[in-house]
Structure formats: structure tokens, C-alpha cells
């Protein structure tokens, strides 16, 4: 795990957890817009840091973050934002409340369990792993990733500069397993109408209707926040919009 901190002079704390394949640098463009008001904690989780670690489970990652928050942040943060696969770890951290986490934004928390068609995820994982090996020469998204994201090709290709350097196939396979078990785990949560949660997603993203049904059961008063015309991950390519809406959510 690698942690970078910005705006440490500010009292309110925001933790940013990146999506699959990505390092903390996925948030490089939005951090300067947030650090003026907030203490921003950007994390490269296990498997996506500068070392040779392997991502295992969202619970294991949440435990590491809890220890960090206890030791370095006085046991509390105001907001955790999980982008895409980062939402699995963010959701576990928020649900466990072993440390105080005031609010949560889940950005692009797609429902990934496709039943008999879940083999598609395996193909996507292999595609992602191969992309990390030829990242500089890619000039268009593979069709599997295009099917998965429904996003802007160029904005997503631009994000490849933030891909971690030491990703293993085991990390990507474990992340896929966590994506498949995310909503079965959420189904076990007791409804929490007091939870301060926002659900962000692009209006073009597939598989969000099922995700919203399940998240709204767990968090009945969650803020439903679609971005019209966006696909999966497109919000990262709009740091001004991302910062604006994080700030608005924090104010509320």
C-alpha cells in the first residue's frame, strides 16, 4: 500500500481509492482542486503500489486502511471515495466502521455478476493484464473494455498513464473475484437509512439498474447521482466536475 497526502493543513479529510489497475495518480488532476479545502489522502492499494504486493480481498485492504487511519489520522476520516473497483474496499471500510468514516461516495459501482456470462470478466481481466504489458503502444480500447465501460475511448486511454507498474495477474484475478462477490456481501448489510452515501455513475454505464436496487436497499437515503452522457470511469476525465460535486456533497 502507498499513501500520498495533500492539503495536510486542512482539518477535513478525504480518502480517494482508485479503480482497478490504477495507482493513486488516477486522481492527479482532481487533487489540486480539492487540497485547497481538504486534507486529501490518495491511496495505491495492495497490488497497485510501487512495491511487489498482491491485492487479496477488500476486507484485508480495509483492515490495512483502518490501521493507517488509527495510527496516522487519529482514527477518523470525513469521506472515502471509491472509484470503480475501489468501491469494494471503500464499502467495506465504511460498513465496518472500525474507524470513523463519516460518509462515502461510490463512483461507478457496477453490478458485475453476469451469471453464466461471467466468463466475460475473465476475458476482460486477461485483456487488462495484456494491456499493462504494452501500455505505451495501445491506441484504442479492446472491444471487451469498450463493452464494459461504454465510456469515452480517449479519456480512458489517457488514464493508462496512471496504471501501476507492478500489477500481477493474481492481483487482477483477485480483484475480479471481489467484484463478483461485492453485491452478495452488500445483500447481507442491514438497511442503514442514516448512512451518508452518494452513488455516482455514468448514464451510459451498463448494469447499474441492478446495482442501484441493491445499494438503495442497504442505504435507503443514498444520493442517486448520474452523470448524463458519461460512461464508466469518464468522471476521472472531468476533474472540475468531480471536485465540484465532492465539495457539494461534503457541504451537505
Report on this structure.
- With 252 residues, the protein is of the alpha/beta class.
- 40% of the residues lie in helices and 17% in strands.
- It has helices at residues 31-34, 58-72, 86-96, 119-133, 143-149, 153-158, 169-186, 208-218, 239-251, and strands at 2-6, 13-17, 39-44, 76-83, 100-107, 197-202, 223-227.
- It has a 7-stranded mixed beta sheet, with helices on both faces.
- The protein is globular and about 40 Å long.
- The mean pLDDT is 86.
What key attributes describe this structure?
single chain, 252 residues, alpha/beta, seven-stranded mixed sheet, 9 helices, 7 strands, 40% helix, 17% strand, globular
Percent of residues in helical segments? Answer: 25-40%
Q: List SSEs in N-to-C order.
A: EEHEHEHEHHHHEHEH
Radius of gyration, taken over Cα atoms and rounded to an integer in Å: 17 Å
- Outline, from the CA principal axes? globular
Largest sheet: 7 strands, mixed
Proportion in β-strands? 15-25%
Number of helices: 9
Mean pLDDT: 86
Termini Cα gap: 31 Å
Strand sequence of the main sheet, in spatial order?
Answer: 1-3-2-4-5-6-7
Unreliable stretches covering 5 or more consecutive residues: none
Helix-and-strand structural type: alpha/beta
Number of strands: 7
